Amino acid sequence: MELSGGRKLLIAGASGFGKEVLFCAKDCFGLPAERLAEVACFLETLAFCETTRSVLGVPVISDAEFDPELYEVVVAIGDPGTRRKIVEGLPEGTRFRTLIHPSACVSDWVEIGAGSVITAGCVVTTDIRLGAHTHLNLLTTVGHDTVAGDYLTTAPGAKLSGSCHFGDRVYIGTNAAVRQGIRLCDDVTIGMGAMVVRDIEEPGVYVGSPAKRLER
């Protein structure tokens, strides 16, 4: 992987998923861990930077130090709504980078929006469109003819069958499965291990097999 114009990769968020993205970037660059600081750094809040200036040997800069001319950004925040707020809060002219781990199987018939991360072991087959700032976590599979809006997020082992249609800010939990042809509206969260067998037209959290809305 190469970055344009001598820019570095900037990973916004240095906590859990930020470390996962760094692992993905390491293999994308084909560099040993001790050389990652040459090409990558983390972006965090000023409060975070007051106590921590390095994570896994990679430097951390604060919001105030961010210059969009120097970096290409991946927002590594797992929650789709929070990720959207951070993306929308970045300066005009920010460039976003998509990372696809070398072990991921992604066909030539797939469109992936800017700022997305496809992690190790994922399989994304044919005639698929994934929106901007998508996160597919480890071993996710996405079947043929699936279309997803922005900020789709899967946890490890999620299985999305073919011809599904997802709105924006959909989250699919660990080892959850979605039956072929299912439609999910915006702002739907599918819990760990849930089985989605019917369309979902109302935002909320859905759990169980078959998945049902969790009332609060």
From TrEMBL:
| Active-site residues per Swiss-Prot or TrEMBL entry | H144 (proton acceptor)
**UniProt-listed Enzyme Commission number(s):** 2.3.1.203
Which GO terms label this protein's molecular function in UniProt?
acyltransferase activity
* SUPFAM superfamilies attached to this UniProt entry: Trimeric LpxA-like enzymes (SSF51161)
Which residues make up the binding site for substrate? G78
What InterPro entries does the database record attribute to this sequence? AcTrfase_PglD-like (IPR020019), Hexapep (IPR001451), PglD_N (IPR041561), Trans_hexapeptide_repeat (IPR050179), Trimer_LpxA-like_sf (IPR011004)
Name of this chain's protein: UDP-N-acetylbacillosamine N-acetyltransferase
What is the species listed in this Swiss-Prot or TrEMBL entry?
Answer: Saltatorellus ferox
The gene coding this protein: pglD
